[in-house]
Design brief:
Layout (H helix, E strand, L loop, with lengths): L6 E6 L3 H13 L2 E6 L3
């Protein structure tokens, strides 16, 4: 069985709650997520 490396995502969101919810959902789908609070 081979395991693939998780894809890395930079997610930019100024709403902290939305950023965390999105991060948790993406991590369940095997993504690595970095959050930026603004651009």
């Amino acid at each position: 069985m081979t395991t693939s490396k998780p894809k890395h995502i930079l997610y930019i969101e100024d709403d902290a709650v939305m950023a965390r919810l999105t991060q948790m959902k993406l991590e369940k789908l095997n993504y690595l997520v970095d959050i930026a609070r603004d651009g």
